[in-house]
Amino acid sequence: MADTRQHTVLPGFGLTVGYTTFFLSAVVLIPLAAMVIKASSMSIGQFMAVLLDPRVIASYKLTFGTSLLAALINSVFGFIIAWSLVRYDFPGRKFLDALIDMPFALPTAVSGIALTAVFAQDGWLGQQLARMGIQVVYTWLGITVALTLIGMPFVVRSVQPALAEVQRDLEDAAETLGATRFTVFWRIIFPTVLPALLTGFTMAFARGIGEYGSVIFIAGNLPMKTEITPLLIVIKLEQYDYVGAAALGCIMLGMSFFMLLSINLLQAWGRRRLFVGKR
Amino acid sequence: MPDLLPVPTSMSITLDQITKRYQNTPVVNDVSLEVSDGEFFVLLGASGSGKSTLLRAIAGLTGVDHGRISLHGRDVTQVSPRKREVGFVFQNYALFKHMSVADNIEFALRVRGVKSAERRARRQELLRLVALEGMDDRLPTQLSGGQQQRVAVARALAHKPQVLLMDEPFGALDAKIREELRRTIREVQRELKISTILVTHDQEEAFALADRIGVMNLGRLLEVGRPEELYARPATRFVATFLGAANLLLARQTAQGIRVGATPVSTMLDKPANQRAELRREHEVVAMLRPEEISLAVERESLNSIYLGAGKVETISFTGAFERLRVRMVEADKAAVSADADAENLAILDVTRTQHEQRQLPLSVGQSVAVGVRRIHVLPTPLSSYSVYAVTSTEADALKQHPLLVDLATRMKTRITTQIEPGLGQAGTARPQQPLAGVAVIAAGADAGAQLDWLLQRGAAEVLILPGQYTPATRVLIHWTGEEVRRATLAVAASVLRHVPAEATYLNILPEEESDASKPSGMRELLDARSEAQAVHGLEMRTELHYGDAAALLQRELAEHTSGMLILGVTDPVDFRQRFDWLLQQSPGWPVLLVFRSEETSAPVRKMT
Amino acid sequence: MSSGPSRQLLSELASRPGRNSLADKLIRWMFISLSVVFLSALLISPLMMVLTSAFAKGMAVYARSFLDEDTFAAIKLTLTIALIVVPLNTVFGIAAAWAIAKFEFRGKSILITAIDLPIAVSPIISGLIYILLFGSQGWFGLWLQEHDISIIFALPGMLLATMFVTFPYVARELIPLMQQLGNDEEEAAITMGAGGLMTFIRVTLPKIRWGLVYGMILTNARAMGEFGAVSVVSGHIRGLTNTMPLHIEILYNEYDYVGAFAVASLLMALAIITLLIKTVIEWRGLRG
Amino acid sequence: MLRTVCLSLLFLAFLSACSAGTATDVKSVQLLNVSYDPTRELYRDVNERFSKQWLDKTGQHVSIKQSHGGSGSQARAVIEGLRADVVTLALGYDIDAIHKRGKKLGADWQTRLPDNSSPYTSTIVFLVRKGNPKGIHDWDDLIRSDVKVVTPNPKTSGGARWNYLAAWGYVLERELQGDWSKLSDPAAAGQVAAAQIKAEQFVAALYRNAPVLDRAARAATNTFAQRGIGDVLIAWENEALLAIKELDGQGLELVAPSSSILAEPPVAIVDTVVDRKGTRQIAEAYLQYLYSDAGQELVAEHHFRPRNAAVMTQHQSEFPAIRLFTISQVFGNWQQAQAEHFADGGRFDHIYTVPKS
To answer: Do A and D have ≥3 inter-chain CB pairs under 8 A?
Structure first.
């Protein structure tokens, strides 16, 4: 089915692909290439030294760990939220639905400052948590909270349409066949929504790895403990170590690219699996 | 495969007065039905007729607002779909796309914790049954539409359901595959002897599959019967036209028999005894002529059937096995011919002829022919056509545009004629030659009383009084003032309700002082009325017993509900004018259909003030 | 874009036998309250925090924060950037969506990934790359300096950084939409003799308009709210290259908490307005 | 394809259009002062007074734009092309970097203006909570296990480096009995080495008490005052005095340690920029103004220690008496201090990467 479209009568292939490639190159690819080339002025040894510095490795662990955790939290709660928004009608549903996009729109610095204020030991929620002996701000927990906020819309907005599209017929069919609600969910709905959930998860994860503005306020920034990789890039820059910064940037870029590519392949796979033969 | 057989009982599906509403509008309206064991029942209806909703209600996919559903004697009205043990086949297959064919079919068994060896055996058995052996590991997306639907059928049968429900299972398939799959399903059903209800909008499909067909329209189950019976002797215009082409003609029932136009075409009818009384009353009826029952000849003498009139061939088209002709009746015979609401088609008859007939008498366009009819079926409906009565043409036009009237006429596929009577409502005008035809329609208002008297004087039997303000009726109240008019009122009500998406309630009102003494008889009357409505007219209705003054009670009942219609059987017009004059005054804003019969002979009321 | 369940569906589900069980109600109640609690803790409480801080010293102080000249300049700059970036990215998004949704070609997956890339790239990197390109030490630095053109630490650099960050939103919104809608109508128009542009304007655009507007709204929201990337290339010159998010940080650092959160509340208001527009659009989209 | 080319040209044209260089006008002139965080309030007043004075003197309008941020990142922005006429940063090291990496000013910049080009000085002090509940009086109290210290990250904040060096210098001073000459005396090498080890242990203990390392000095102040984190904030003296004034609701108190470092924030003209723009004259006058009596008075009002002895005496009471040592006394110069302590793999990194024993 791949080549059916090559013979389409639609015009504009050259123009749009050309323009897309040009604009993409000008705004995204060439600048990113500048960074890669900058980093490539190091020798392999120097490059590895930057990458394998214990502080850098500690920051990877923190960044990836908290991003992963936040993405997991978002997968669970994002799914619950999307489910509630799609399947239930309750007062304030529209309000919550509109609010989901808020983290996109709010400056990350404001989110960071506000979250820090809320979760600080004298903050609204921080007080309660402190009573339970949980400290959020300036720990990895705080970073997770900030990344959860940043990544939440990605999961909800991916899952929502997929959930809305699950054919009611499938659920009805399963139910007439004797499946319990749990079975219907686990065997029918979940597998159908899984590609979308994975997409949302990966987007949230990828976004979390790069996040800086909101994290910087709530993270303690203690070397080896609460220092995220983007902060290390900033520190390298402060020391006029452009090459080192570019090297770290390249690693993060590579990770992002890899993750996004896997999402896109995943989506293509999902489409093929579920929709081939229906056209 | 003895283990595939379901446990035999006599009635496997019993529906009792099922009603389902969406936003207060009934989409399934008082449907009762019994499907016996191993029967293949087809629910036939246009889209939006409520047939799919009814099917989903049987499966438990939607709840009902009223009524009971039993499967094999078990009341399942409140049972969740997963415990109803039904098999359901969806129009778009609803296969689980992420599971293989095998997993799809085994789903119901897996859910029930059946062991894998047993599952596999059952799966292979089913795949053989639907002729898909060896497809176990395919994904649904790798199958054609027909194969997918076969898998869906196999899946629905996996857990040995008590009944099989199919919702337009062939809707998404092309003609050839459809036929093939139809055969498969019929075979599977026969082999398993599983009670089946299939929903479709395709009458051909219904004829091909059904042991019995039920036709639904506007949420009501209009008629149920064996295919050939329904085709030959439908009770309603809707079924007559829905099950195939039909020429509907307005005819007159006289003491001598049926007349179409000037031609007496004798009776050829076998009316049930309880309608004999109606036969003696001269009135308008609707006659159905199937196109294949019409014969054509060069001249009247060579017809070997009853002569209907002279006509001219207008178009001829070839459809393979048959030739389809349209024949325009010549001027003289046109007036009383067609019951069609569309004036253009007034004098046109559809005719089909077999190849054999074609060879015997080749015809060409423009040729004059004698038209004969081999068989006429008179519909038992008392509502044949509508005649709007008004003093001026402006009033008549306004009345003709009334939404209820337009709705009724379109849905009944009948016509509305206009009678401008300057003397309407004035006493002393001469009597007409013959009784008025069809239902007389007048506007509610101050003059309505006098106009009603005028009409009654001229032998009107049914009078529809339309208010200016009108919201589509969702509730029809039925009441009669004396037993003499019961049968006629029920017949009229049944006819109306088949064309209005509203719920029917019969009000039996007994005088207050008799309440205790008459209770048993009041209840009996109610039950009698209901069973008669069901048996004779196929009308399902609620019944309510009230005590008090009928006029006052009705007035209160009408005031409580904003949208509705009243069907009132009247025996004594004088008494009616005294007690119910307010009904004619527009005040309730309800359309009122009055049915006048005075004696057991059911002759229309003629005595006047 | 999504909407809630249809009323008819809900009523059918509610009427379904065995549906209104205690367990069902419990799950429903649990899901809704979990959603509400989660969103309250994570989303609503910070927003409330912003609002309470903004109004901590009363309405008058709040209103006075906007009279400041630099605040005004920051608002103006932010709107200017949004006004330039949104149309540019919209045109790009449409072109990209057309190319990707309507045609098959090799490297499509890579192209989609490249378009998505800016979402996943750290804002720090998005700023850094322009420094490496246009900074004094960068590829074009010397040439730019000789011709007296400033890109970074001036409007163009901030535009570029914002454009980078908001790059994928319109395209991301349109690609799946156009893929789903298929080519039939466009092909019909072409066979009827319509030109490419005509086909797009008369056939495609009406179909995708709500998705397009939603993409633009997201782009706009993100463009106005971007902090990290813009911060790197801004130069932080008061009244000149400070956008609202940067100005918020400055005010905050000047211990002017009311001012900082007042500006933040303004951004929130802008976001809410755009989200409201979105809701209205969805509503109209559902009808139309 | 043609359309593509047109569009791209249009885009480039647009880019260049909105970036025309600053036009120089005799009647009005614009200066850009790139400074670090704690000088916002100072330069707001200086700019206002100076432009008024300049207008009176020459009839020329001057509008001075300010840019504030971390000292290091501000220096980097100037190197990368931010067109600052003057830089007023926290450390000489940062201006040195502008010379070395950006070649935007001469190597002799520090000698062009009096007092090492530092028109004002400051030092490092402590801010504690009202009533000093933890009883913090000197550096030694900061390494107590019950004390939480708030200080920014020396990697990203110039002020934080002063904090670090002040603590280090305090220990050296104590160990060497205040005799700085021992540092260059080969005979005392053993004693000095032991002192350096003591100092590193001390600083390590101090940072172990820090729950958070903010990105910049102001962020640290906000953390301490707004979030209520920590028992003591190590801060610039001027920052501490300003914070007490601005945040008087928070209940903060200044504690002066027995000895601290003399911070000399330098100022300089960026040669390449003023020459291109033709603003050298006014830029020089602007920096000179800081040394004038009026300028020094403003400096004192904003809690910086003025260089002018007369002005200093007048404001003596506002500044706590602290024994002060300088960078050059203790660490040689900024280049050496940076390389030894703050570069990657330096002593600061050592504190965090080597597990504490």
So the answer is: yes
Q: Positive or negative CA dihedral for B537, B538, B539, B545?
A: positive
Contact call for C249 and A207, based on CB within 8 A: no
Confidence of residue D15 (pLDDT cuts 50, 70, 90): very low
Cα gap A238→D73, rounded to integer Å: 6
Q: What is the ipTM of this complex?
A: 0.77
Question: Which residues, 6 or more positions from A14, have their beta carbon under 8 angstroms from its beta carbon?
Answer: D1
- D337 CA to chain C: closest CA distance, Å? 26
Q: Which H, E and C letters describe B470-535, residue by residue?
A: CCCCCEEEEEECCHHHHHHHHHHHHHHHCCCCCEEEEEEEECHHHHHHHHHHHHHHHHHHHHHHHH
- The domains of chain B are located at 11-237, 243-378, 386-596
**What are the angstrom distances between the C-alpha of B225 and each of A103, B207, B222, C197, C263?**
64, 11, 10, 60, 76
Tokens 């006098």 correspond to B450
> pLDDT of B346-374, one tens digit each?
578 889 999 888 888 888 898 999 888 88
Name the closest residue on chain D to residue C231, using Cα atoms. D69
With CB atoms and an 8 Å threshold, state whether A172 touches B88. Answer: yes
Judged by CB atoms closer than 8 Å, whether chains meet at D11 and A117 is answered as no
Q: Residue C179's CB: how many other CB atoms inside 10 A?
A: 14
Architecture of domain D2-121+265-318: 3-Layer(aba) Sandwich (3.40)
Closest chain D residue by Cα to residue C131: D80
Yes or no, beta carbons of C17 and B82 under 8 Å apart: no
Contact flag C135-D18 (C-beta cutoff 8 Å): no
Chains B and A touch (3+ CB pairs under 8 A): yes
Q: Tell me which residues of chain C, numbers 6 to 65, contact chain B at a CB-CB cutoff of 8 Å.
A: 8, 11-12, 14-19
Kindly report the pTM of this predicted structure: 0.80
**A5 near C CB under 8 A:** yes
pLDDT in tens, A33-75: 989 998 888 888 888 888 888 889 999 999 999 999 999 999 9
CA distance C179 to C97: 9
**Residues A243-252: pLDDT tens digits?**
899 999 998 8
Amino acid at C15: S
A260 part of contact set with chain D, CB < 8 Å: no
C50-54 CB contacts, 8 Å cutoff, 24+ apart: C50/A110, C50/A114, C50/C261, C50/C264, C50/C265, C50/C268, C51/C261, C51/C265, C51/C268, C53/A117, C53/C257, C53/C258, C53/C260, C53/C261, C54/C258, C54/C261, C54/C262, C54/C264, C54/C265
The H or E element that residue D322 is part of is none
Chain C closest-CA separation from residue D27 CA (Å): 20
Superfamily assignment of B11-237 in CATH?
A: P-loop containing nucleotide triphosphate hydrolases (3.40.50.300)
Where along chain D do the CATH 3.40.190.10 domains lie? 2-121+265-318, 124-261+326-351
Which residue range(s) make up the domain with A161? 43-278
Q: Give domain D124-261+326-351's CATH architecture.
A: 3-Layer(aba) Sandwich (3.40)
Reduced to 3 DSSP states, what percent helix, strand and coil does chain A have, rounded to the nearest 5?
80, 0, 20
D306-335 in b/e form (b: 16+ CB < 10 A) is bbbeebbeebeeebeebebbebebbbeebe
B130-139: string of b/e by CB count within 10 Å (b at 16+)? bebeebbebb
Length of chain C: 288
Q: Cα(A213)–Cα(A234) distance, rounded to whole angstroms?
A: 12
How far is the C-alpha of B323 from the C-alpha of B292, rounded, in Å?
10
Residue D243: closest CA among chain C residues belongs to which residue?
C255
Instruction: Tell me the count of B-C CB pairs closer than 8 A.
Output: 33
